[in-house]
Each structure stands twice: as structure tokens, then as C-alpha cells.
Specification:
Strand order of the largest sheet: 2-1-3-5-4
Number of domains: 1
Distance between the termini: 13 Å
Largest sheet: 5 strands, mixed
Helix content: 25-40%
Strand content: 5-15%
Number of helices: 6
Shape: globular
Bound molecules: zinc ion
Order of helices and strands: EHEHHEHEEHH
Radius of gyration: 15 Å
Amino acid sequence: MNIYYYESEPGLTDGLLLPLLKQYTSVNYVPLPEGPKTALDNWNGSEDFRYTTISKFSLTPDDRVLITTPKSSPLEKWCVKDCSHALWGWSDGTFSVIYTEPPVRLSTQFHECLHFLGVDDCYVIDDPAHPAKPSCTRDDCVMRYGVNSLKVCDSVLTQINNFQKQ
Ligand SMILES: [Zn+2]
Ligand SMILES: [Zn+2]
């Protein structure tokens, strides 16, 4: 898997993220190429940012795009409009956008990157209180809602293993 990373400002991607992900899967971590990077730098919020990216760059089924932006950026506004409970980060499984600040930025980046590996959320999306799913066995699982942690439950590990066998 190739994770192309993009930062609205240099240094937003936590340096601990890649070693953390490598504990679970083999991943190439590469800066987003110049064409789509410039397109995202100049993105005006009026069209889907995914279209802006892929209009300059074709993704293979093995490619993912990790975007980190400051709070209150146009990308944050787009994501929260798309999904109102996505207050820290957003993902469609191919693109992930993170707009939290430390100390929750790394755990949010980890959570959204686990969606790249086919992992589902460990919380009930349709319930406004977002309780944990019964399948989640750890109170501090990073796939629960609003949890600042770098731990995963057994259900997440199973999903990662199944994804790698595909
Ligand atoms: Zn999630
Ligand atoms: Zn879990």
C-alpha cells in the first residue's frame, strides 16, 4: 500500500505515525506529487477535493491519500459538512483528512489510516451518543468515538488480518 501524504502546512503529519502503522502492515509513505499537491494548495472548496486530487493524479487500488490540515481549514469545513459527527477527522477508505491538533492529532491520524486497512469504526454511527459496538473489547480502542489512544482491540486486529489476506 502506498500512502501519499499531503500537509496544508509543513510538519502536520506526526513523525510517529509511520512507525506505528508499520507495526500492522507494510506501507510506503510518500509525499503527494507536485501536480495534485499544487491543486490541493489552490483548492477553493467549491468542488469535491477528491476530484481536485485525482484530476491531477491517477490512483491505483493500492494507493491512499492522507491529508492533514489545520483546524478551521476549508477542508475541515467540507468534511464536517459531508459527515456532521466527523469532528476530528474524516475518511472514505481511500482519502482521509485530519484536522485536529495535538495531543489528539496522532491518534486521529492513526484512526483514519486504519480505515485505509479496511477497519470499521468501533462505535455506533447512527446513535448520537456514539456508544462502543459490542465487538470492541477495549475501552481505550482508537476506533471508538472521541478516544485519544494508540491501542486497538482484537476486532480491529482481525479486520487488519482479513484485509491483508484479500
Ligand atoms: Zn472512523
Ligand atoms: Zn475496537
